[in-house]
Design goal:
With about 450 residues, the protein is an all-alpha fold. The protein is built from 17 helices and no strands. The longest helix has about 35 residues, at about 5-35.
Length: about 450
């Protein structure tokens, strides 16, 4: 197998592993608040929104140390251990206890920071400036396939149910725990960097994946990675991209947790309201997969760079927000267990709700594939710190969004995303234009990125 084939193999295994883990975790996130609402008349008093806020808050703080962890432990083992913690969090729902639920939320926040930093490092060291766009798209399409499979099961298993029984809950979460563990084991198939690197890549790769086993050198690499993260945080490019990244954190919260809860709370959808949560997740996944596949496959032939894709993403999201505003009751995100009988500016339509799910997924893929691509391109030699900063900003904004989702009506949540999305698109354009100018100065073809 040629070095290039080995690198593509690594990207595919990386994507498939994440697909299994996030089939479990994203399905869990999508149904958590609905499941918990059905538990709140027992001794369990947790909140899905609060749990997610804890996860993303800890996630954001942990990104300060995650490059050091990856530098010392290595990306492969980092992802394996992180995957185990994801599985433990999901397993908590089999027999929920409030203390275990919130404790697991803290640990998965730490694990998520390490997992995504290691993922960014693995993606970058198996790519170059000619393949980073393709590899980002392939990874994203495989990752977001997770939204399809888990939610397809939820759609059929919960068809016609207005209340989720203890048996239904246990069956779902036992299956999701096993699926997460399968994805964790698959990380062992990733070839180590020394087996895949091409000539000339050694210096940048060893900066994170050095072979020395001495404790002193490991500590030096950990400290160097931490210092590099702090230094990169204040560069112009990272500060500008942080606005775009902040938007992806807000809309991630909305489509992965809030929107499914809104659909499940609308009583006018009748007996299908709970199964529609699964169908919504499926169509978010279809949009993500379609976007990741198209923008990955077409990246080699894109003469105009990343800006048109990001512009497409924000237009799609604005259309989705507009339709959701007209279709969903304002109190849907914070409705009680009995749901809401209110209507918005039109009679709630299941077809419009599911179409908006597709638009949310498609628009999200536009932003994330291009952010992964530009970070891998700009910081090919500093991939772990750069991706740690990316996840730090994204996760802290997701934590804030999950917190205010407990209190804000739907219209205000949509308005916040519109404002941040608008400015995030402008700042991305600025960085991309500068990247294009730098590439032209080097005499490279802009369409290769």
């Amino acid at each position: 197998m040629s070095p290039e084939s080995k690198k593509l193999f690594n990207i595919i295994i990386l994507g498939v592993s994440f697909m299994f883990i996030f089939t479990a975790f994203q399905t869990c996130g999508n149904i958590a608040q609905t499941v918990i609402t059905n538990l709140n008349n027992t001794d369990f008093h947790g909140s899905g929104y609060t749990s997610m806020s804890i996860i993303y808050g800890v996630f954001s703080a942990s990104n300060l140390i995650s490059p050091s962890v990856v530098a010392v432990v290595g990306p492969q083992l980092s992802m394996v251990v992180s995957g185990i913690f994801y599985s433990l969090y999901i397993a908590v729902f089999i027999q929920p206890a409030t203390w275990a639920f919130y404790t697991a939320s803290v640990f998965i926040g730490i694990a998520a920071a390490v997992l995504w930093t290691a993922q960014g490092n693995c993606l970058t060291v198996n790519s170059d400036e000619n393949t980073i766009g393709r590899n980002s798209g392939v990874f994203w399409a495989l990752l977001q396939s997770s939204l399809f499979f888990g939610n397809l099961y939820i759609y059929f298993a919960w068809q016609g149910k207005t209340r989720i029984s203890e048996s239904d809950r246990r069956t779902v979460f036992i299956a999701l725990t096993v699926i997460s563990l399968v994805g964790t084991v698959l990380f062992f198939l990733i070839r180590k960097q020394e087996d895949t690197k091409a000539p000339g890549e050694e210096d940048s790769a060893n900066e994170i994946l050095g072979d020395s086993s001495s404790a002193q050198n490991k500590m030096m690499r950990a400290v160097a990675a931490f210092k590099k993260s702090i230094r990169l945080s204040f560069t112009k490019e990272i500060l500008l991209l942080s606005v775009t990244t902040a938007y992806t954190g807000l809309e991630l919260t909305f489509f992965s947790g809030v929107y499914g809860t809104c659909i499940g709370a609308v009583n006018r959808f009748g007996s299908e309201e709970k199964s529609l949560i699964g169908l919504s997740g499926i169509f978010i996944g279809v949009g993500e997969i379609l976007g990741g596949g198209i923008f990955g496959l077409l990246s080699k032939n894109n003469r105009f760079g990343r800006n048109p894709v990001v512009m497409l993403g924000i237009v799609i999201h604005f259309i989705a927000f507009y339709l959701i505003f007209f279709n969903m009751p304002n109190d849907a995100p914070i409705a009680p267990m009995e749901g809401t009988d209110a209507a918005a500016y039109m009679i709630p339509s299941k077809e419009v709700a599911i179409f908006c799910s597709f638009l949310l997924g498609l628009g999200d893929s536009c932003f994330n594939t291009q952010l992964l691509s530009i970070l891998g391109f700009l910081y090919s030699e500093d991939s772990a710190p750069a991706f740690a900063i990316f996840k730090f900003v994204q996760s802290i904004c997701a934590a804030v969004a999950y917190f205010y989702s407990n209190y804000l009506l739907l219209q205000w949540q949509l308005l916040i995303m519109v404002v941040v999305g608008f400015f995030g698109t402008i700042t991305f354009f600025t960085v991309e234009w500068e990247a294009a100018a730098a590439l032209a100065a080097r005499g490279s073809d802009y369409s290769s990125i």
